[in-house]
Design a protein that fits this description.
The protein is mainly alpha-helical and about 325 residues long. Helix content is about 75%, strand content about 0%.
């Protein structure tokens, strides 16, 4: 096992926020690709496949990448971590599939709140269980309050878009539970990738393995869809449609690196705040048709940042501890 130095909070948290900034940009690109193809699963396949190609090139070109590849089979054979950790990418594939399946029914707002709720709750649980490389972290009252505030702030920030979910309550139950489950599993994915990174000695290899398993799962899903419903439209020629996968390489790799220093909950909260800031920036600079930046969106984003500060500050030992 290769030991890498831990990042201090003041260095790691901004990196988590920066990784989160890429997520809405990737979502916008993959969404546009899905429309161009007429196939949401096909867009996810393209995104994961291009990300896999990028990670293969990086892994073979860099000495650290090649060294990490050499450690994969010994780490699995020696049971340095549970073998199923190499399937962490399937969680990311499930998240992308859930996004393509439910956003049209729920709208972006309700999907975001459901996924953030699941991710925040599981971040507390995963840290308490000590699954990630940062080890066990106590569930303190401050961390719980910060988590609850984060969910409330995200709900407030996206509340102007709730009109997109116009189906009845009974029809929304299953579509809402899917992103809650996908978000809940995301914290486990970060913990699994983070633990694998410690043993591989580099997040490059953990990210590559992540893309291998996710790509295989999505190709299987797309081939089933192809047999049932046929193919969508041809691949578009514009180059920017294919940037979603490389962006995924960045935030998956950073997430795998940061959970060892920050823990799963704080890494997730930092990415959530970056995601809201990125969404707000996109709506201001490159607004989608019909987009209106309302006051609750701005205030909810600010409250999210305050909740992150509350959950991550070094409070006195025993403060509101449970």
């Amino acid at each position: 096992m290769t030991h890498t130095p831990r990042l201090p909070l003041l260095a790691g948290l901004p990196l988590a926020v920066a990784a989160g900034l890429l997520m809405p940009v990737q979502g916008r690109i993959n969404g546009a690709l899905g429309v161009a193809l007429g196939d949401g699963i096909g867009a996810a396949v393209v995104s994961f496949t291009t990300g896999l190609v990028v990670m293969i090139v990086i892994s073979l070109a860099l000495p650290k990448g090649r060294a990490g590849l050499a450690r994969v089979l010994p780490a699995v054979r020696n049971r340095d971590f549970p073998a199923y950790y190499v399937l962490a990418g399937c969680i990311g594939a499930f998240f992308v599939f859930t996004q393509s399946f439910t956003v049209g029914l729920l709208g972006v707002a309700l999907f975001t709140v459901a996924a953030v709720t699941g991710q925040t709750l599981s971040g507390l649980l995963v840290d308490r269980m000590g699954i990630g490389p940062a080890g066990k972290k106590s569930i303190t009252g401050i961390r719980v309050i910060g988590s609850v505030l984060t969910v409330a702030a995200v709900a407030w920030a996206v509340s102007p878009r709730f009109s997109g979910a116009d189906a009845g309550a009974s029809q929304l139950l299953l579509p809402v539970l899917l992103p809650v489950l996908a978000g809940f599993l995301m914290s486990f994915q970060q913990a699994m990738n983070g633990t694998a990174t410690v043993h591989y000695g580099t997040p490059i290899t953990a990210t590559l393995v992540n893309f291998v398993s996710g790509t295989v799962l999505l190709w299987i899903a797309w081939l089933v869809k192809l047999a049932v419903a046929g193919a969508g439209n041809p691949l578009p020629g514009e180059w920017w449609y294919y940037l979603g996968g490389p962006m995924g390489c960045v935030f998956i790799g950073l997430g795998a690196l940061l959970v060892r220093s920050l823990g799963v909950l704080v890494t997730g909260l930092g990415m959530i705040s970056g995601q809201l800031l990125g969404s707000l920036g996109l709506d201001l600079v490159f607004p989608a048709p019909g987009t209106v930046v309302a006051l609750p969106t701005v205030l909810g984003t600010v409250l999210t940042l305050a909740a992150i500060v509350l959950a991550t500050l070094p409070w006195p030992r025993g403060a509101l501890k449970r």
